[in-house]
Predict the structure.
Amino acid sequence: MNKHKILASAVVAVIAGSAHLPEGMAATVVKPATSRTVENAAPLGPSRFIVKYRSGAVERNNSTAANQGIAQAATRAGLQRALSATAASAAQPAATAALMRRMGAPGWSVVRASRALNAVQAEAFMRELRANPAVERVEVDSWMVPTISGRANALVPNDPDYAKYQWNLLSTASGVHAPEAWARSQGEGVVVAVIDTGVAQGNPDLQANLLPGYDMISEKLVSRRDSDGRVAGGWDQGDWVEENYCTQLGLRAHPAKDSSWHGTHVAGTIAQQTNNGQGLAGLAHKSKVVPIRVLGSCGGLTSDIADGIVWAAGGQIENMPVNANPAEVINMSLGSETPQACPAFYQDAINFAVSKGAIIVAASGNSSGDADTYTMGSCSNIVLVAATGNTAKPAGFANKGSRVTLSAPGGSEFGKGTVSSFKHGYIWQMINGGKTRPESTNWLAEGYSGTSMAAPHVAAAAAMVQSVAATPLTLAQMRNLLARTAVPITITGTVPPPGSVLPPGPSEGFKAVGMGAGILNIDAALVELANPGCSLDLTSCEKPCDPVNEDCGPVLTPVALTNKVELKGQGGSEALYSFDAEAGKVLSFMTYGGSGDLSMYVSHGKAPTVAVSDARSTRSGTPIETVRFTAPKVGKYFIRLVAPASFSYSGVTVVARQ
């Protein structure tokens, strides 16, 4: 039963999915998930944080605005959700956060959570506070959160259909290197909005990873609900059409088609429950999905889609509640069926979401055309994704163009591949089996192909990156990171025919054109993210020096500091100091005076690095830094001062006080 697209006018968006597996090949039924017991509960940590608001920001002086941003950060971090007991942590009630007081230092304020947070929650809350453009810095009050690093074995999920179907995740030749990446991140703490057909309610292999969404469709002819108007939930009611059903909306004649459950499939690629012994796997399977329904029978109006983008990012829509879980990543597997410039209000909606810190990932389209001339490809401020098949070559249906950022597995053309063990090259996820409306007990694995299937791989990758990033990446940084770590697509075989989107070239080894930087490699992206040699915009990285096998230059000799004795006139680009500390007395290290820019890194017992330290102070554009330990250890502390690349500092005073 092929899923034919409904042809629409310029104001109607269409699903970017291309092909649908024949009914006879969809057979896997899943069982309800089981719960786990609690062991070795993790200790709790801080409840107070110190935030510096930027000069000129409304939040700097307006407590109402500050509390709004703090509350939004708390919901994005998931603090408003009570936590069930797990093997790693005890059950915890929901938490809130609010402005506690202003500090004497200009711009700084104390923010207090309603209860102590564990280490994961504290890091997530701080990350979300930093995502607010009004915030310059965030610190923990009273103690520093340690940086934990390590590497686990690659995860091999026990989902029964993972190894049989999901080449897109596990193939080393054409997949996204998910098993290795899962040892580094699984998307925990990140919210992804899926703007699509909604999600079929009750999917036993997805429902636990869903947050409340919204159905933005106001026309009951399109929504298939009983009345007009928007409603909470974001549940897919089906997008089937009878023959010529859409002509009553002014669209042209068409055949009948069954419901696609497209949004359920897309959401599954992002966050299908994984390693739970049932069904299939999702890439960022510890992230949460907010389903936003904008496509129904006959498609969806761009006005509803634009409102969906704004609502997803936490914006106010008339007569609607604000999204309680603003998205850090927004997936849009939809677009125009024919060439169409990006509408101005679309672009405004996208720009708003990006200004709130969201990363928008969009499908390039399935018309074998120039992606630059279609919506979404003609829009700015997005990550545009083309599709490849299970042979690591461009999918013939995919729109290609200069605005494509990178590619990801979307299935072979018409689902046909050469690796029979991977079910003919489709992208597989769990969907509802209803022909029209959803059926509560009818769930099955189904294979699709299209750029719709490629985009959620990249959205999931963005969630995995944001989950472990010390500070959330901007759109530009995310694009740079994913592009520079992608695997180039090399074409072998015959010279492209005249009129092909690929230019003439040699018969072997020429690079695919219009597919962006190559195929997504999420493991490489996560490795690069942790590379201290990367530039701030992630456009270039240098491998850290290996002192065992390389000449790493002169080793810094620490200069001893004496308690409360100022060491004046310090300058250069890097220096190392030491201090013998006592226990039971507050310990502070400070730099002040002079000019230039520097950052301070401090560790006990060994010299710190930019990547690894017990504590740090990294104010931008100033040589004034402070690190304080309220409960220091006995022994030697090492203090490293480092100027940014191409910068230096001079005339600075360094002092330790205890």
